[in-house]
Structures are given as structure tokens and as C-alpha cells.
Design goal:
seven-stranded antiparallel beta sheet, 119 residues, homodimer, 1 helix, globular, mainly beta, 8 strands, Jelly Rolls
Chain lengths: 119, 119
């Protein structure tokens, strides 16, 4: 049982759209990710997903609106809700979601990560 | 579905050791709390608990060690592990834990909060 410093963990990887597991509790995972550019439209049929911005600015498009998140802001995307993350510049994000959550949800493409590293 | 800005939420309350619910997902709650001074020794028999420091410095005593957390650092306290939070000065904390988690765990005293406000 050790503390996790986000700054140290973010220094360990540079690839975008590739969440890393940094903690697990109650069947949920804490993941860190760097986003830049445009992701794909997708939804998670069974999992609510929390995006917390650690640094930078994250835009999430929904079918009916767009939400922009800055540092120390979060949003909970309920299961079944289509969303598309976008970041003009690099953004550092902490995700809180069930361990079973696939990054691209119901959409499979070259961005899909079936196995996540634990860092 | 709206974004939550931690700064705005923390401005809504001032009492210490009284977590407020700011989000819920997958049976888990996101809670914000202000700590200052010494809490009580306790454990949660069924829930792992995550403490994330938003601002300030949080010390958590365990029976075999003491961990100090600064901004953007977190620790996961596994179920069954006795702990006692302490903060010399005010610290702002975000908690991730099951909705069922009682703040004082297996210890009931004047700090116990059976009903949490949602802000």
C-alpha cells in the first residue's frame, strides 16, 4: 500500500489514447491517459465513466452538446451515452471506471486497447 | 450530465470531516471533504477507499507506517486496514469509494455522518 503521485506516473509514458492502470479498488480501476487530437465516437453499454482533468483542456462531444473540462474538473458519462473526446493540445486525464471498461467501448478500431499496462 | 468543478464545490461548505457527495457512478460515490486536525482510528470492513489530495497535505497513519500525501497524490486503503487521517492545516480531499461507505467505518462517535449531503 503506497501512495501514487500522478506527476511521476504521467512521466512514465508518452503515447496518446492508451490508458494505464495506476490503481484498483472495489472492482473499479483508476487509469491515467494522455489525449491529443480526436478520438472516436463510442459508448459503454454497461459502465459509467468518469473523466477528471489533471492538466490541460479536454473537450467531450455528445450528440446533443459539447462539454469542455479544465484542470480539477470532471464529468461522469453514464452508460449508453455516446461520446467523443477531443483535445486540441495534450491533456492529462484520470479515469475512474469499472475494470472491465474497454477504451473504445462498442467501437473496435486501431485505437482499441484490449490489454492495459499497469504502471 | 454536467461537469463538476472541484473549486466551485469546495466553496459551498466549510465544515471539516463531513464528506459531500458530488458524483455517483457504478455504485461508487465521489465525495469531497475538508479535513483539519485528527480523525479517529477506523477501518471499513467491506470497502476499499481512495483518498486523493486536491490541495494541502494529508497524513494517514496506519498501524505500521505513516503516509503523507500532497496535491495530485492518492492512496488506496484496502478494506479491513485500520487508518487515521490527520491534517495539520486544512486539506481538500476527493474520495472514491462505494456509496455505502460510512466515514468512520467500524467506529461510531460524534464524527459519524450517517447521511451525506449531495452538493
Amino acid at each position: 500500500m503506497n501512495k501514487i503521485a500522478l506527476t511521476e506516473k504521467f512521466a512514465l509514458f508518452s503515447e496518446y489514447w492508451s490508458p494505464k492502470i495506476v490503481g484498483e479498488l472495489n472492482g473499479q480501476s483508476i487509469k491515467l491517459a494522455k489525449f491529443k487530437g480526436e478520438f472516436v465516437w463510442h459508448k459503454h453499454d454497461n459502465e459509467d465513466e468518469l473523466f477528471f482533468v489533471v492538466s490541460g483542456m479536454l473537450t467531450i462531444e455528445f450528440r446533443d452538446k459539447t462539454v469542455t473540462l479544465n484542470k480539477d474538473e470532471f464529468i461522469i458519462v453514464p452508460k449508453g451515452v455516446e461520446h467523443k473526446p477531443f483535445a486540441e493540445d495534450e491533456v492529462l486525464v484520470m479515469l475512474f471506471e469499472p475494470a472491465t471498461t474497454l477504451n473504445t467501448g462498442d467501437t473496435r478500431n486501431e485505437l482499441t486497447k484490449d490489454e492495459l499496462d499497469r504502471i
